[in-house]
Design a protein that fits this description.
The structure holds two protein chains of two kinds.
Chain A: H1 2-29, H2 34-39, H3 45-55, H4 61-73, H5 87-123, H6 126-141, H7 144-158, H8 176-210, H9 213-220, H10 225-262, H11 268-277, H12 281-309, H13 311-316
Helix pairs in contact in A: 1-12, 5-8, 5-10, 6-8, 7-8, 7-10, 8-10, 10-11, 10-12, 11-12
Chain B: E1 7-15, E2 23-30, E3 35-39, H1 46-53, E4 62-69, E5 72-73, H2 79-85, E6 90-93, H3 97-100, H4 107-116, H5 123-136, H6 142-145, H7 155-167, E7 173-177, H8 185-202, E8 205-210, H9 213-219, E9 222-227, E10 230-236, H10 237-242, H11 247-255, E11 280-289, E12 298-308, E13 313-317, H12 324-331, E14 339-344, E15 347-348, H13 354-362, E16 364-367, H14 371-374, H15 381-391, H16 397-410, H17 427-439, E17 445-449, H18 457-474, E18 477-481, H19 485-491, E19 494-499, E20 502-508, H20 509-514, H21 519-527, H22 536-547
Parallel strand pairs in B: 3-8, 3-9, 6-7, 7-8, 13-18, 13-19, 16-17, 17-18
Antiparallel strand pairs in B: 1-2, 1-4, 4-5, 9-10, 11-12, 11-14, 14-15, 19-20
Helix pairs in contact in B: 4-5, 4-7, 5-7, 8-21, 11-18, 15-16, 15-17, 16-17, 17-18, 21-22
The chains are: A mainly alpha, B alpha/beta.
């Protein structure tokens, strides 16, 4: 197990290193550059060159990259170009908001998927299956910003029961009930596609499990079907679902950018969006790298959970 | 004394959307405390009949007729009412112990679930009862086993656990669907003994579904023979074996392969001339599985030396895990060799240059156990047989087509079958196709890994006959792997008995099977059920003696 983890750790580091190069190059390939944004359209070539030199953008690509890595290693994220202030403190300000929102959506998607798919398999009525599969397709097909806007229109404008946007004024932990009201709409908007994808996967996994011989054994013993689904099939279907859940985190991270924009949620997603618009390289680079790290760590964690859920892997170390 | 039967099935018919019904007309009566064998080949409807009793038919199946348990009609009951019967009154044991248990729950948990389903809620009482049950099915150290997961048990132990689950709520009827088919002969003998003892102790009536006449002779009181969804004959076991009335029953009994009696004097097969280069030779080979760095390497083959002369059929027998399949795969270079040498026609395969290795391997072919899995379902039969010819670019395309027709003819299939797909063929026909494909390149060595284990006895008999015939005609050498000693006796010239990766005994088949030198070989031979009810007691005693 430890050996397996160490080998996975090596590949995780490699992925992160490659991603950092990719991110660094990619943002420089985006048309427009920070010099134009900072100097304005009417600046003289001399002024532009001065700004370029000041930002270090006149250096060769690899020199800029190595410089950046050096700064990262010292946890010196440096000042932002345009957004104002230190990159580190910008991220620190938004991090909590985004972490709370994403985790809330993740839990919502996971719990929601378990509830809907077990209901579908336990109930196993034709109308229920068609209904769920229809809703499922809709939830995957409709883009996140559209569901977000519809949710705002319905629950904040037409029936003003929930706040239309912003974060809870007293913070998340002082008044959890108020915080929940603020989290609900952006959380649902963000969770919906992941919820639908997970439900589809888990339902199919449960159905496959219900065709396994051990389920026939259990049925022949007179154990009610509902109990077999809940205590046996679900337990067998979960390991592979955890892997999919880990992959869905990517959807959530991507979705956060749109959802935070719609709900005026001052998080990292909004910071990325502003950073890209302003070609604020230092901000965008670090944020994208951060999301890669989060994703890679999640993959590692899902592997560990997967192994731990399956006694054949846990006890024998074979996979 | 005419007591009412515990289970009465009358005019049961089961149909699917397909044209032919799975079960057409089956009436069976089970008396209290008896062991009734339901015999028939695949497709005869024996498993469906048993499943219908507990309402466990696959979706889409419709059953009509009547199934009465203690004068209570079971057919048409809803799930809730069936759950009261399942496990509590009538329980079922399945064929494949590897998959019949939930892999992620402990044995104790699964037993507790079975008890809980019929009212035993207290954890402490359930634990005690679970230990008692594991003891009843003769599992050593039951307290410790409660915390084990299924993958930590052997196949035989898993089947005992499945049996313990079925017996948890003291059912009056036990339906056992091929309970020993997936097990080694020695384990099979133990499980059969256990079933008999359970019947004696608890008075549970047992319906034993099997295709193995040896098993029937061993344990059943009465026999019902099914063919294509209908009962063709039934009777008391001894009488039925002595005087079968129906031709189908006679065929079934006649297709059972028998081992030679120790008294039979067999002519010693002349040993092949020693000077010829062997088709394959293993020289002190070792195979290890698992990582060697961690010191956990598991020796699958240890220090085996074996030769197969050209045109000779060498049988490899042994229990599961004895390394017989590994040795077969080693000949084809499909498993990494840890130590030793494998020589094909006198050339060390691994030391040979790439081009030569390729031509050496061209002379080698494989037939696998499961023809359903080894033929590509999207390929036509002709394309499957042609593939090796295409890969090695033998002749012109027209010549290849002609060769396919010739090969189909050799395995006694009409040339028109070339256009069919595997699913349109029966199991026996599929295995013939696999054989034709293996022979396409005129191999000097054929590795056949349990080629008839998935087939019915009557089909098996015909395929073996064909195999022998082809082997004599084409003269290829063969490594024939089987757990079935009677099959090996039928086809092999020499036999090597494997145990835990080592050859324990080797010699001409007749000699080894009639006068085994090793205890292990004797135990294997004794565990083979003999299709003769009159010899029941004798054999069991010997197995017990040898096991102790």
């Amino acid at each position: 197990m430890t050996r397996y983890l160490l080998s996975r750790l090596g590949s995780a580091l490699l992925v992160t290193a490659l991603a950092s190069i990719g991110i660094f190059a990619l943002i420089r390939l985006v048309p427009g550059d920070p010099v134009t944004v900072l100097a304005g359209p009417d600046a003289t070539p001399a002024a532009r060159d001065a700004i370029r030199a000041q930002l270090g953008l006149d250096q060769p690509f690899w020199s800029q990259y190595v410089h950046w890595l050096g700064d990262l290693a010292r946890f010196d994220l440096g000042p932002s170009y345009k957004l104002g202030g230190d990159v580190g403190s910008l991220i620190a300000d938004g991090a909590l908001n985004t972490v709370v929102l994403t985790l809330f959506a993740l839990v919502l998607a996971a719990v929601g998927a378990i509830v809907t798919s077990t209901a579908a398999v336990v109930g196993d009525r034709r109308w229920l299956n068609s209904l769920l599969s229809g809703l499922n397709t809709a939830a995957v097909a409709v883009p996140t910003f559209a569901t977000a806007l519809v949710l705002v229109l319905v629950f904040a404008v037409r029936f003003p029961v929930l706040p239309a946007g912003g974060t809870p004024p007293a913070g998340f932990f002082a008044q959890p009930d108020i915080a929940l009201q603020y989290l609900l709409l952006p959380g649902i908007a963000l969770a919906l596609p992941a919820w639908a994808a997970l439900t589809r996967f888990l339902t199919e996994a449960l159905r496959t499990q219900m065709r396994q011989p051990y389920v026939t054994t259990a049925r022949a013993l007179g154990i009610p079907r509902r109990r077999i689904v809940l205590t046996q099939a679900l337990r067998n279907a979960l390991p592979s679902t955890v892997t999919v859940l880990g992959l869905q985190l990517g959807t959530l991270l991507g979705g956060a950018i749109l959802v935070e924009a719609v709900f005026a949620w001052p998080g990292l997603g909004r910071l990325v969006e502003q950073g890209i618009s302003a070609r604020d390289y230092p901000v965008v680079q670090v944020l994208l790298l951060l999301s890669v790290v989060v994703f890679v760590v999640t993959q590692l964690a899902t592997d560990v959970i997967h192994a731990w859920l399956d006694p054949r892997v846990r006890l024998n170390g074979v996979s | 004394m005419p007591e009412s039967p515990v289970l009465a099935i009358e005019h049961l018919a089961i149909s699917f959307a397909q044209p032919r019904p799975a079960v057409e007309d089956v009436s069976v009566v089970l008396e209290r405390g008896e062991i009734l064998a339901l015999v028939g080949e695949s497709g005869s409807g024996k498993s469906m009949t048993a499943r219908a009793v507990l309402g466990l038919l696959p979706p889409g199946a419709r059953a009509t007729g009547s199934i009465r348990y203690d004068d209570r009609e079971l057919l048409g009951l809803d799930e809730r009412a069936l759950d009261q019967v399942r496990g509590a009154r009538i329980a079922m044991v399945f064929q494949e112990p590897q998959t019949a248990l939930n892999p992620v729950r402990t044995i104790g948990w699964q037993l507790r679930e079975a008890l809980r389903a019929h009212g035993l809620r207290s954890r402490k009482a359930a634990r005690e009862r679970a230990i008692e049950l594991l003891r009843a099915v003769e599992i050593p150290e039951p307290e410790r086993r409660l915390d084990s997961y299924p993958h930590q048990l052997s196949g035989g132990q898993k089947q005992r656990v499945v049996l313990a689950l079925a017996l948890a709520n003291e059912p009056e009827v036990l339906l056992a669907d091929e309970p020993t088919t997936a097990l080694d002969v020695t384990v099979q003998a133990e499980i059969l003994r256990l079933l008999d003892r359970i019947r004696e102790r608890t008075g549970t009536a047992i319906v034993l579904i099997t295709h193995n006449m040896g098993v029937v002779a061993e344990i059943a009181d009465r026999v019902v023979v099914l063919q294509a969804g209908k009962v063709v004959e039934e009777g008391e076991t001894r009488a039925l074996f002595a005087h079968p009335r129906e031709p189908y029953t006679k065929t079934l009994l006649a297709s059972v392969l028998r081992l030679p009696e120790p008294a039979d004097v067999l002519p010693v097969v002349a040993a092949p001339a020693a000077e010829t280069t062997p088709a394959v030779e293993f020289r002190n080979v070792h195979v290890r599985y698992g990582s060697r760095r961690r010191g956990r390497a598991f020796p699958a083959i240890s220090d085996v030396s074996l030769q197969v002369a050209p045109g000779e059929v060498v049988g490899l027998v042994g229990e599961s895990g004895s390394g017989k399949t590994t040795l077969g795969r080693l000949a084809a270079g499909l498993v990494p060799l840890a130590e030793g040498q494998v020589l094909l026609r006198g050339t060390d395969v691994l030391a040979a240059p790439r081009a030569e290795r390729r031509s050496l391997r061209r002379g080698l072919a494989f037939v696998h156990q499961d023809p359903e899995a080894s033929l590509d379902p999207r390929f036509t039969v002709g394309a499957s047989i042609r593939e090796p010819l295409d890969i090695h670019q033998v002749g012109t395309p027209e010549e290849r087509d002609a060769r396919v027709a010739e090969l189909l003819d050799a395995v006694q299939l009409p040339a028109s079958y070339a256009g069919r797909r595997p699913r349109e063929l029966s199991g026996g026909q599929r295995q013939r196709v696999a054989l034709a494909r293996a022979l396409a390149l005129e191999p000097t060595l054929l590795v056949a890994d349990e080629p008839t284990s998935a087939l019915d006895v009557s089909v098996q008999a015909r395929v073996l006959e064909l195999f022998r015939d082809l082997q004599e005609r084409l003269g290829f050498a063969c490594l024939f792997i089987s757990h079935d000693l009677a099959v090996i006796h039928q086809v092999a010239d020499r036999v090597a008995v494997l145990r835990a990766g080592q050859v324990v005994e080797e010699g001409p088949v007749g000699a080894v099977f009639t006068r085994p030198r090793e205890d292990y070989t004797r135990r294997l031979l004794d565990a083979v059920p003999v299709p003769d009810p009159n010899r029941r007691g004798r054999r069991v005693r010997r197995v017990r003696e040898l096991a102790s």
